[in-house]
Amino acid sequence: MDPGLGLAGNGTSQVSPMAQQSAATATFPVVDQTKWADATGFLKAACDDLGVGELIHGENFSLFEAMSALEIMDPKMDAGMNTTGYKTVEEAVESGAAPIFLTISQIIDVMDHLLACEEEDFVTFGFGLPLDAEGDNKCLATLNAVEESLARQLRGCKGAASGKKKSTEEVEPLQDDPELEEDFCESVLCRLRFRKSLYHALVYMEKPLGRGSEMAQKHITRALTELAAVRASSGFLSARRPLKDPVESTCTASGQPAVGFDESVNRRLLAPTPPRSIDILSWNETLNYFEQLLNDLNRICSLSSDLELEDLLQYIVDFQKSQPDLVARARLQLLLLQDGKLLGRETVTDSLYRAIKLQNERPARDTETYNFLTQCGRLTMQLIRTMCTNPAWQRRKLGRVIQEWGLLLEQAEFSRETSFRKSGVGGQLEKTGWTDDVVMGWAAELLCWVVTHFLLLGFELELYSPNEYCMVYWYLDHALMTLMHYKLAKERRRLEAELVKSNDTSPESAKKKGKKKKGGTIKPVVNKEIRFTPSVLLLQCYINLCKGFIWMLAALTADRKIIHRETIFNTELERFTQRFELLHKIVVPEPMTYLDFREATRHRHQSVKELYQVAYDHFMSAQQHIQELSQAVSKTPKMESVIKAQRVVDIRQMEQVALRNRIALQIAHQAGPGENLRVTFEFSLHPCFAVAVVKKP
Questions:
Q1: Pairing of strands 691-695, 678-682
Q2: How open is the CA angle 522-527-529, to the nearest 5 degrees?
Q3: b vs e for 429-464, b when ≥16 Cβ sit within 10 Å of the residue's Cβ?
Q4: Tell me, what's the pLDDT at 50?
Q5: Cα 169 off chain centre by
Q6: Mean pLDDT of all residues in 169-180
Q7: What is the distance between the alpha carbons of residues 642 and 143, in angstroms, rounded to a whole number?
Q8: Which of 569, 341, 535 is nearest to 465 (CA)?
Q9: What is the mean pLDDT of residues 663-680?
Q10: Lowest-pLDDT range of 394-398, 410-414, 436-440, 442-446
Q11: ∠ Cα 601 602 604 (to 5°)
Q12: What pTM, to 2 d.p., does this model score?
């Protein structure tokens, strides 16, 4: 039938005279609801007049419809344009492209290719392959039977090779060449055992309260051993079936394509969406992926169950620095929040009561405090879930977390002031004066920690341009100083509690301490210094690095070693507003304006030499605090192993950043003003703190 003709409602081909007249005048025909008209002439005339990129559309066709439309006959958008491959599994089997009976080499290729496909979101039942239809138990039983049969076959091969008497039990060989039987058996066995070990490790990790962590670690260790054997088998398999032109992106150990796989199968199964061919990892990438996954799972299993909330959040941050996969991050979240409880042991609200308690007393469970901490518990669970996502999604969600924490603190401040007025207590609770209030101080400290993490993530994601480094480091320094203020206040409260406890002469305290020696006196603890914990020292290192970078930029700018050029798209004020508008909606840290930034970084009364010296001194102070942090970490035996290992890495990275920037300052200062030097900044030593690179162009 002519594609230009349509069928009428009664099944006959019919064109009305009015439609013919309309087509002749190149206008849309007027037809009733049951008849079709021939528009071939009109379409041909329109095609002759249209240029490249032009489109005929109705009056209601807007940009939104254009973005959601599909372009017919475009191979990238029209699934029907790709006619290669097979439409169904049955068709592939009948044609021989997906044979049912495979050789042992082909079976190993299929096993390897399936392993490589697990980076990809591959839903088996959506492609007509319900592999889990009979459940895990029957699948494991089958695997055990196959493993036992292969193990007997392998023992028989080794016995024959050593001249021992063969077993009376007959086992069907995997292939025809007896000299290759042992290598093929080992290749299949290590792949089956790797699968089993990985499965058992994941099952044991699901046990509540971390009861299965020890067994999971044993299976992870075995899985790593079997994975090494899988990697070692690549040499044998690739040597047996060499390719004329080896391809690095092959998904099998042999280098041969696996039979029965069609990467374009989803182009027809997902017709409403633009076609997308699956991008599968290469064989080496697959092995590296599973090796990192097992190591990440091992780190999760080694997590201590008695960590405080502060250490737990720091553990998540340090764990994310290894860029774990979705599977590892999901397992970590399941472990941290089991049945809505922190580490499966207690509710988050009860954990918060433990986290903010003083050494000698527990916050009263009054209605106001309980409601506030209940809301804090809800937001803390949301924070933990957010911290377990990938960095880009995490930073996006942290913005919402910061807003909700800020709103909660504002509501708590209003409620507290209302209570003060009702009780007749004068004065107003200052927004930055919450250090004397245990509950509010804890919430403000956590909010400051989230803000600093939010700003640091921007460097890891490379969101900031060089023109924004100064303002970001300046605001980060402000947030770090505020966080340091609350941490030191908490440590001061702890020392005061110890002082009160040591001077307690009540009968109850005497019974706990035992009988006092005759004539003995109680010596009060006075002038006890505040202990700088590793977390406080780490903040101090960050602060010195931020200040050093700010003053280094000021020195290089004043010495005409770098020139700031305004962009044509936005001004510095607009960039400042875009970066920190979210932080202006919260009360802690205190919002800082663009005028505050300009005033703090103007440096009108310092000479160039003084600017260089101040920057140099800050990097020198950073190195001193880094040494103190190193000593404190080594003297903290109870520190979580993952956190301790990451602190060692941070210490080495920060030390290199401070040293390299001091050298860059010396080189730039020794050169004359405006001398032809090129100063750039790179994050080669630390993901968040830049290093100045001075070169002659």
A1: antiparallel
A2: 120
A3: bebeebbeebbbbbbbbbbbbbbbbbbbbbbbeeeb
A4: 84
A5: 53
A6: 75
A7: 35
A8: 569
A9: 85
A10: 436-440
A11: 140
A12: 0.81
- Segment 258-272 shows an average pLDDT of 66
- Indicate if the pLDDT at residue 17 is higher than 80: no
Q: Inform me whether the pLDDT recorded for 554 exceeds 60.
A: yes
Max mean pLDDT among 41-45, 301-305, 653-657 falls in 653-657
**Burial zone of 528 (CB within 10 Å; 0-12 exposed, 13-18 middle, 19+ buried):** exposed
Q: How far apart are CA 558 and CA 568, in angstroms?
A: 23
Q: Left if phi > 0, otherwise alpha if psi is -120 to 50, otherwise beta: which for 675? A: beta
CA distance 668 to 678: 10
Long-range contact pairs involving 510-513 (C-beta distance under 8 Å, separation at least 24): none
Enclosing domain of residue 582? 468-499+531-696
Tokens of 71: 């372009």
Mode of pairing for the β-strands spanning 346-347 and 341-342:
antiparallel
DSSP characters for 385-446? HHHTS-HHHHHHHHHHHHHHHHHHHHHHHHHHHHHHHHHT--S---TT-GGGSHHHHHHHHH
Name the nearest CA neighbour of 376 among 346, 340, 397, 348: 348
What tokens appear for 244 in the block? 């004329």
Q: Is residue 39 part of a domain?
A: no
Inside any domain, residue 474: yes
Distance (Å, whole) CA 21 – CA 32:
15
Q: If DSSP codes are grouped into helix, strand and coil, which group holds residue 145?
A: helix
**Mean pLDDT in residue range 451-468:** 96
Quote the tokens at residue 669: 């200062």
Query: From CA 81, how far away is CA 617, in angstroms rounded?
Result: 66
pLDDT at 351 over 90: no
DSSP H helical segments within 241-361, as ranges? 266-269, 283-301, 309-320, 326-336, 348-356
Q: Do residues 250 and 282 touch, judged by C-beta distance below 8 A?
A: yes
Lowest-confidence region among 114-123, 294-303, 307-316: 114-123
Residues 6+ apart with CB under 8 A from 329: 320, 388, 389, 390
Select from 76, 126, 82, 130 the least CA-distant residue to 269. Answer: 126
Among residues 334, 319, 378, which one has the least CA distance to residue 352?
378
Strand order from edge to edge, sheet including 346-347? 337-338, 341-342, 346-347
- Take residue 392 and report the two structure tokens written for it: 């880009």
Q: Is residue 244 part of a domain?
A: yes
User: Does residue 262 belong to any structural domain of this protein?
Assistant: yes
Structurally, the chain folds into a number of domains equal to 2
- Identity of the amino acid at 642: V
Report the alpha-carbon distance of residue 469 to residue 475 in Å, rounded: 10
Taking the C-alpha atoms of residue 279 and residue 41, their distance in angstroms, rounded to an integer, is 44
Residues in the chain: 697
Q: Check residue 245 and give left, alpha or beta (phi > 0: left; psi -120 to 50: alpha).
A: beta
Q: What amino acid occupies position 519? A: G
Long-range contact set of residues 65-72: C-beta below 8 Å, sequence gap at least 24: 70/274
